[in-house]
Amino acid sequence: LAARLGYKNNEIVENAKKIAKEEGLSDEILDSLYLLTDLNEDEAKHRLEQIGIMPEILNDLFPSFPATKVKEEVKDIFDLLDLSIDVLDRRSYELSGGQKVRAMLSLVLCSKPDILILDEPFGDLDPITLRDVSNSLKLLCKEYGITIVMVSHNTEFMKELSNRGIFMDEGNLVEDSRDMDQLVDKFIDFCHADYLRQDN
User: Fold this and answer.
1) d(Cα 40, Cα 59) in Å, to the nearest integer?
2) Which percentage of the chain shows pLDDT scores above 90?
3) Which residues is 173 bridged to in the sheet?
4) Maximum distance among all alpha carbons in the chain?
5) What is the CA radius of gyration of the chain?
6) Which of 27, 32, 130, 173 sits CB 3.0–4.6 Å from 125 for a disulfide?
């Protein structure tokens, strides 16, 4: 997130290298200090104090402390995704499937794209989490004016999320409709997949 938002860009790193050289800091020490910017700002400064280094050095080298700035920048997106900001301090294996999907969405959405393209993005989610994520996506689209283009075979998810559907078969357009119920019925008939009908 910090890299996407520009808080860890080359300009910041080059400036930090210049300051480190003026202060007589080795590349190894600078690398170690740079790693601290992935931590919460208070935690990073606390660790420096523990080894007898003045924490102000981080402000000199990295004036826009990435971890702090990222949390400020993505708070609204995390709120809309119903994702707690504390996931930024956790490892990916500590997150549930739904949290991982939301975290990946936040990574994509932090740059506020005009168009978001998703290819079967939520196949592993349980129905309740899928509904939560789809509601979050609807809120994000409305809030930021993002158009989502998505490939999916999940008929209920298509009905829930889409306001227009395009049904294709082997590269050929079969149907282009804003009536998602009709489109899904046509898809089910085409595939001879009556088991997908909700009334069965």
Assistant:
1) 13
2) 6
3) 168
4) 74
5) 23
6) 130
Average pLDDT, the chain: 82
Q: Report how far apart the first and last C-alpha atoms of the chain are (Å, whole number).
A: 44
Q: How does pLDDT run across 26-54, given as a tens digit for each residue? A: 888 888 888 887 777 778 888 888 878 88
CB 105 within 8 A of CB 95: no
Q: Residue 51 is encoded by which pair of tokens?
A: 């080894």
Euclidean distance between CA atoms 93 and 29, whole angstroms: 29
Could you tell me the residue ranges of all domains in the chain?
2-66
Per the DSSP assignment, residues forming a β-bridge with 166 are 176
Tokens of 126: 């349980």
Q: How far apart are CA 11 and CA 13, in angstroms?
A: 5
Structure tokens at 141: 């689209």
Residue type at 76 in one-letter notation: D
Which amino acid belongs to residue 195? Y
CB 62 within 8 A of CB 12: yes
Pairing of strands 115-119, 165-169: unpaired
Around Cβ 198, how many Cβ atoms within 10 Å?
A: 8
